């Protein structure tokens, strides 16, 4: 097995890396921000799941979008007043949207929201689930706005008030369904789905929000129950908590600075979750460098497996081997399993920028320089590409034409966190985030002095 040891900035300081990549990262940030600002559904103020394909809006993408408005203010893309106006419209619509147990004509139930909503009306899209994790990302974005908009004026007072209402309305305890770990969702036709959040994943934020709730808290022992399902193993040169797609190692880190704070599990391992994500990122990269299935383009500069679009749900013979290709799929690699069909997603590297900035920024630059407008356009990086998928319709490989909101968000937010720590520092002041971390047993670092 080929082992390539990554480094965190190598011999360069962060400022030196920033200076070298300033033009590229500035352009990437502004283009990615415009996805959230320019494509929003102006009847519901929800963020599209994807664009230019107009299918439905996504509550998780809306949560990320709310946070990107703050990034926009910090970078002078928009004014504070413009951001406040957009945020207030979004939160007001969410507050007034219809909640109930009906199967249609509804937006959510018990404070949770359906995974996808229709354009124009914002109703449940077809028969999608009431999603616990997607609601968590919506609430995370809402709480980031609650903390940022702290001025004593009518507009910002309303933002804080509605944000508090929306968070307190969520019945996190109901979603436990009597189990030690939380269900992934609920259908009005059939009740709770069987899948639950056990095993390490992006669900750290879900549990932290549930623990902190002043109205519908989950049990204090939930965090320990969840940690007991972790898989701590060595994979491609790094020992860490294994989870296949990189988004699971990124999403909670968009909102929480895990550097220097530890729960009991991480204290026992002698690292923190930030270091865990660094190792996961570099292991993902090492796997792509070794490229066991000999896919086209995989290298030390073009890599990254995570949930993303793909070329098609079909099988083809590649290098004498049958390869199953997929459309949208949670791609990734760990000791548990490998899901790899040659599809690379820029957000895999983009969402990991704080963990391994040299490797990740170099990967994004290589993708842009190699494939140009095929992968990099009006709103930054299109969702994914697969040079191995060669067919009569795709003689030069497959390149997505869509941008995906949940993949755009991590690129922008994590790049901002790397450069300015904006969202990390903001959320350190949010009482709910601090409370949730402490209830989960986190100690040390900035958390010990947090109010």
Account of the protein in words:
By secondary structure, this protein is an alpha+beta fold. It has one domain (14-449): Glycoside hydrolase 144 (GH144) (Glycosyltransferase). Helices cover 41% and strands 12% of the residues. It contains 15 helices and 21 strands. Strands 3-4-6-7-8 form a five-stranded antiparallel beta sheet. The chain has a two-stranded antiparallel ribbon with strand order 1-21. Strands 2-5 form a two-stranded antiparallel ribbon. A hairpin with a 2-residue loop joins strand 12 and strand 13. It is globular and about 60 Å long. The relative contact order is 0.14.
Structural domain tally: 1
* Proportion in helices: 40-55%
Unreliable stretches (pLDDT < 50, length at least 5) are: 1-12
Query: Which CATH first-tier class would you pick?
Result: Mainly Alpha
Give the biggest beta sheet: 5 strands, antiparallel
Class based on secondary structure composition and strand pairing: alpha+beta
Instruction: Report the CATH topology name.
Output: Glycosyltransferase
User: How much of the polypeptide forms β-strand, as a percent range?
Assistant: 5-15%
Number of helices: 15
| Strand line-up in the sheet with most strands | 3-4-6-7-8
Which of globular, elongated, flat, extended, rod-shaped describes the shape? globular
Round the mean pLDDT to the nearest integer and report it: 95
In whole angstroms, how far apart are the ends?
47 Å
Radius of gyration: 21 Å
CATH H-level superfamily: Glycoside hydrolase 144 (GH144)
Based on the coordinates given, report the CATH architecture: Alpha/alpha barrel
Report the count of strand segments.
21
